[in-house]
Amino acid sequence: MIRHAISNLNAWLAILAVVLSSSAGDVLLARAMKQIGDLGQLRARRGLFFVALLILRNRYFLLGVGCMAVSFYSLLFGLSWNDVSLIGPAAASLTFVANALAAKMFLHERVDGRRWAAALFVAAGVVLMAL
Amino acid sequence: MNLRKYLVLGGVTIFAPVGDSLLSFGMKQVGNISLHNIHSLFFAMTNLWVALGIVMLLGFFAAYMTALSWADLTYVLPASSLGYVLLAFIAKFLLHEQVSLTRWLGIALVSAGVGFVTTGPELTRRPPRRQLPGDHPAAEHS
After folding, report:
1. DSSP H/E element including B36
2. Rounded distance, CA B55 to CA A13, Å?
3. Among B61, B73, B98, B109, the residue to mutate for chain A (most A Cβ within 10 A)
4. What would the pLDDT profile of A31-58 be if each residue is shown by its tens digit?
5. Across the interface, which of B35, B78, B87 has its CB nearest the CB of A89?
6. DSSP string, B84-120
């Protein structure tokens, strides 16, 4: 019983860590990619090496990768305590809701009614998954 | 949207759940890791399934970065939502995990919700900004 509670607590702590670090990472990576431009077109014009160099020299990219690394180890920690069918969707879905807020606040994306409705559906789905 | 962009989104959709499932399978072999023994997370990467999972997640990362270069973050994440459904099927039929009816309903709701955004535009279009003397084009997005 106690072991089950500890397992659940550790899993949800891991999910929280994944959501926070992953959202920060997503926003930083999105900003980096928007700065660089369409990777497909750039690769066709300037080659893969040039594109890789451009990405690796972007400070938002490097910060984003750091956040993603924290997110990855939090995910591994969570997976050692609970099933992937809980950790995976719960962390990813909550990250989606956090991302909608972060994208509007920091990236100034147009998050319209459709996108907010999607966020509410996702949140409801996460509650059902956690029951 | 063209075929190349759909293929990139397909890569985002497939690589993530397959990678997560391989990690899960591997971590079940490695066993529970406590906070006192957190450095064991690094040794977990020597497990074949965890290593394969990492390779798949690198594939996901490449596809994800490409998608973010031409679409909004709030478009890319939902558009790849079919991955949740795929993940549930992998968990049920390959990893033999117990996936309850409530959890199935939750996964369906998540997928339905995020499906909304795929009908909208993939990128926020901003009116072109008036060029001011001394403006540098590279500073536009920073």
Report:
1. none
2. 26
3. B73
4. 999 899 888 888 888 888 888 898 999 9
5. B87
6. HHHHHHHHHHTS-----HHHHHHHHHHHHHHHGGGGS
